[in-house]
Amino acid sequence: MYTKEFEIRWSDIDANRHLANSAYINFMSHTRMAFLMENGFGQEEMAKHNIGPVVFYEHMYYFKEVFAGKSVKVSLQLKGLAEDGMYFEFVHNFYDHKGRNFASCEMMGAWIDLKERKLTALPEELFKNLSSLEHTEDFRTLTKEDTRKYGKKPQDLS
């Protein structure tokens, strides 16, 4: 399982003196990007293919508080991937210094062509690299319908 270890900094704590919501998001993003950069998705490679990752949603589940003073580990697993790699779904789990799971997050995203500003498939070599990430037990092939499963649509101000 891919993991990244973090020290909880003063700036990661909120008014209740526990890990702030924004710190969870930052730790997850750092973990994802570390895996990607270690697996062929560095800035040069993404620029060569003119792609970048976009996040559709992140659903957090908090089980227990965690406080400053001890390190935490954040894991990354692949929960779903489209046949062409366009859509991806990750699971992050958060573990305290004793290995106890104190939070979890399911996130979905896609790859965007930075010139066209449209979603795009992954090049074959990058698809293979992303596919190498450990899969969850409930891994599945994603389709466009999976990105719409919550039925959320924009509602403009009138």
TrEMBL record:
* SUPFAM superfamilies assigned to the protein according to its UniProt record, in alphabetical order: Thioesterase/thiol ester dehydrase-isomerase
Keywords assigned: Hydrolase
Q: Which domain of life is it from?
A: Bacteria
Q: Which residues form the signal peptide?
A: none
Q: Name one Pfam family in it.
A: 4HBT_2
Query: Its family?
Result: Belongs to the 4-hydroxybenzoyl-CoA thioesterase family.
- Record's protein name: Thioesterase family protein
Taxonomic lineage of the native organism: Bacteria, Pseudomonadati, Bacteroidota, Flavobacteriia, Flavobacteriales
